[in-house]
């Protein structure tokens, strides 16, 4: 089945021939101008870079690393690496120097392409002195072995290389909430299967627009932006920075958009910053006027043209999904992993079921193991972990199903609901097991809680460590702290009333730090590193329990 699908480079050549002058990539430049690249221009630059790479006479299948924030030349570089017969190894643009070195050395990278970065000086020490580098057009200050214009001086390759389905295309190093990252191997067949199916599922086409802002090195953005653009012909707009994000969004007016829960929350908080939640709620409840207000709010965000809105990486609070539906935007939840190209489950328009993700995607087999683990199998399933046969054997069953590590259940229609992580379940000192994820989802429904981590391993009773949203932090300092505490105490009572005795939270601890990638609390994909969170606060757990406060402020 994999051999029958259309493969990425084959489809790119078809797109290039079909509409060579159609706008493909739109890149904001530091001087405020926009660079628009057509399909023909992208193909020309990729072919010249591929020619330069071939001239280096590296062994077929050599690993070429890309270290850059999202930009047009990230995608062009990836295409060039494939055309030259090599394997791309993307790195997150916010890694520490140690993590950069770890990935480059483990993958045995032969070359590093460096592009748009915020803090190159802190990362550069992780690049081995012997590793040659190429500066992409948007690059930081520094010394590099070569520059993109050097590559463009080469005559373009004249053939249209079409690597077979079983040839390795990329190694994606998972960010990992614990331990060292693993290199997930995907071949061209994996990408082709997932992209072919996804484009058909969502009916994305040449007139669609997408904004690329989440890391392209992550599998979700790789599939939703890079591969989807090749297979659908959609135009890709790039975000310039966090500061210009809303302007970038309004310029692109995407018709399809993918976000993580924190992005959807930040959009909402931005709206509330301009109009109080109660007033907006009142207006949305008015006949006719409510629909008009909803459209205006979406237009202000640049989301008024969206046909498909997807959210992944973590569950979205049901109240937040409901808020967007009232505006007129249905946000569909998506479930997948790096190990299956992010292609597993997604909600279907008009078929929302509270608490459930949605149905499996076409071509995906699903089963629930005896221990409750969700296991999936499809043409998008990885080839394994690079240089990690034992971990590969742990992740894949004998009959080829991927062990997701998530516990879940299916209803009669095939909808999936996740109930926790197998390895995240902890045991209290009373010998009772607690799954934190469902409790965290309940707490995250509160508008003033942005991040939450339920802890309790070895403690008599669990407690929740919470990070307030920006609005919540403002309320805590401008005289509304009492009202906020009352609201959180009510939340605690409501959540505990729905839990078994051994699961009930002793209290909520409002920590002063905001958990971020920069301070090590989050992975580059914004997932909470439980071991870091627990390790940072473990010394206070007993003290906080003894204080016995329902809502406790971490001083």
TrEMBL record:
Keyword field contains Iron-sulfur: no
Keywords: ATP-binding, Nucleotide-binding
Keyword ATP-binding: yes
PROSITE patterns per the UniProt record, alphabetical: AMP_BINDING
Stored Pfam families: AMP-binding, AMP-binding_C_3
Matching InterPro entries: AMP-bd_C_sf, AMP-binding_CS, AMP-dep_synth/lig_dom, ANL_N_sf
Occurrences of domain AMP-dependent synthetase/ligase (ranges): 16-386
Gene3D superfamilies found in the cross-reference section: 3.30.300.30, N-terminal domain of ligase-like
Substrates-to-products reaction catalysed: a long-chain fatty acid + ATP + CoA = a long-chain fatty acyl-CoA + AMP + diphosphate
Signal peptide: none
Domain of life: Bacteria
Name this polypeptide is given: AMP-binding protein
